[in-house]
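Before relying on records like the one below, remember that each one covers exactly one chain. Contacts with other chains, cofactors or solvent are not represented anywhere in the record.
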Amino acid sequence: MFTKNRALGFLIAIITLVSDLWSKHSVISWFYKGGDAIEVTSFFNIILAFNRGVSFGMFHADSPYGVYALLTVAIVLSALVGNWLWHAENRLQSLCFGMILGGALGNLYDRASYGAVIDFLDFHTLGYHWYTFNIADCGIVIGAVLLLIDLVFLTKKEETSND
């Protein structure tokens, strides 16, 4: 049965996915038309980077087998998150799993299309650059942090109030 919480979760997944794909398309178009890196502020640039690894550039997959291995893992994890979304216990969990699923699908699309994930958000200070990331990564991280808050604080609060 398709509940309101499930609908919300899948809507959030679609919004996250579309936002991610649109932003990446815009950045790729800018750079392939000859555009340079955009200095938005003194600590934030928009650049174009191809991440052939996973989180934070770890586990580079330069060979075709590596790309297929990462694609397989991404497909399995996306299916798991979709299943968790379907079985979410409350609205916040649906929202969290929706953000994570949308982000996972955005990065999966990149890896299937380009053999790498497109990253473009570049924060830096005092010569140190944080890992470049994208909207999909934001959805995954924000969804995971909110899910952790729900599981650690809100679920425990509900359990103690039921005792």
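The mean pLDDT is 89.
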